[in-house]
């Protein structure tokens, strides 16, 4: 079980630079009193907003992430963003393999693996997102899919790099306006599959990897999810994009998280 509560949001292709700045300022003010020894709070805005975003975040109170990254440092990769460019801006987290990258832009596990290795090599925290589609769930192969995404995605990641890895379990059928949130029992079952696969790969060190649930997390289900043993955090889309609502969720789940420890 992770020692801190991990809560973050990816703003996807929403929020302009100005909107991101306002959101971060508000979120920073709203959460200023929450001790960061027990909370890792992160925001992953659009690329264009990163630099200004970095400027308004106070210290490490909110970690800044990028939604994607090229696996090469530089070269003929039109339209891609290099790890060196992200480092220059002060990004700490790189999100890799979000469902929309996999299913809208056709990224596969081998690509995610290259990105994970590059992110770790450059000192970033790699947030690897995994999750089965509705069809894979229907076929009864969700566990196999998760194990495959983990084993390929983390291939070559040595145990010493594990403290800089986070896993987000986001069932594809649960994400977005047309998604249905997973029940906490289902989410816990899949988080247990993920934890067991990590144990198979890394033994006892697997316990330190934060496992975040994502997919239609909202004010009504956040607490019951965090109460589960293997759910160390939440990765939230729509419900987090209003700073006050995001803060309300954080304040709701903190006591439930403390209860677990
Ligand atoms: P959602 O998005 O909370 O809006 O379903 C989750 C995600 O895509 O990370």
Task: Kindly list the characteristics that best describe this protein.
globular; 10 helices; binds 2-phosphoglycolic acid; eight-stranded parallel barrel; 41% helix; 261 residues
Q: What does the main sheet amount to?
A: 8 strands, parallel, barrel
Spell out which ligands are present: 2-phosphoglycolic acid
Our estimate of the beta-strand percent is 5-15%
Helix content: 40-55%
- Topology pattern, helix = H, strand = E: EHEHEHEHHEHHEHEHEH
Number of strands: 8
Spans where pLDDT lies below 50 across 5 or more residues: none
Task: Sum this structure up briefly.
By secondary structure, the protein is of the alpha/beta class.
Describe this protein's structure.
The protein has 10 helices and 8 strands. The protein has helices at 17-30, 50-56, 83-89, 99-103, 109-121, 134-139, 142-153, 184-202, 222-226, 243-260, and strands spanning 5-10, 39-44, 63-66, 93-96, 125-130, 165-169, 211-214, 233-236. An 8-stranded parallel beta barrel has the order 1-2-3-4-5-6-7-8, surrounded by 5 helices. Helix 1 runs parallel beside helix 2 (50-56), helix 5 packs across helix 7 (142-153) and helix 7 crosses helix 8. Residues 10, 170, 175-176, 179, 214-217, 235-239 line the site of 2-phosphoglycolic acid.
């Amino acid at each position: 079980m992770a020692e801190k509560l991990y809560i973050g949001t990816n703003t996807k292709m929403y929020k302009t630079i100005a909107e991101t700045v306002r959101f971060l300022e508000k979120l920073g003010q709203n959460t200023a009193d929450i001790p960061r020894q027990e909370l890792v709070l992160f925001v992953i805005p659009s690329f264009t907003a990163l630099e200004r975003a970095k400027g308004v975040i106070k210290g490490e109170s909110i970690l800044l992430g990028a939604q994607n990254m090229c696996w090469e440092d530089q070269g003929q990769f039109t339209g891609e963003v290099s790890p060196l460019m992200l480092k220059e801006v002060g990004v700490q987290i790189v999100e890799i393999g979000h469902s929309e990258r996999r299913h809208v832009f056709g990224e596969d596990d081998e690509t995610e693996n290259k990105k994970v290795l590059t992110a770790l090599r450059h000192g970033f925290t790699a947030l690897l997102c995994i999750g089965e589609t509705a069809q894979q769930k229907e076929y009864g192969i969700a566990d196999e899919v998760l194990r495959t995404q983990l084993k390929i995605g983390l291939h070559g990641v040595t145990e010493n790099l594990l403290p800089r890895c986070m896993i987000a379990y986001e069932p594809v059928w649960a994400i977005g306006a047309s998604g249905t949130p997973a029940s906490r029992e289902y989410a816990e079952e899949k988080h247990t599959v993920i934890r067991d696969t990590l144990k198979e790969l890394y033994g006892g060190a697997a316990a330190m990897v934060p496992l975040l649930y994502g997919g239609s997390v909202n004010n009504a289900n956040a607490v019951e999810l965090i109460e589960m043993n293997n759910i160390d955090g939440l990765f939230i889309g729509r419900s987090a994009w209003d700073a006050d609502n995001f803060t309300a969720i954080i304040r709701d789940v903190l006591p439930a998280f403390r209860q677990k420890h």
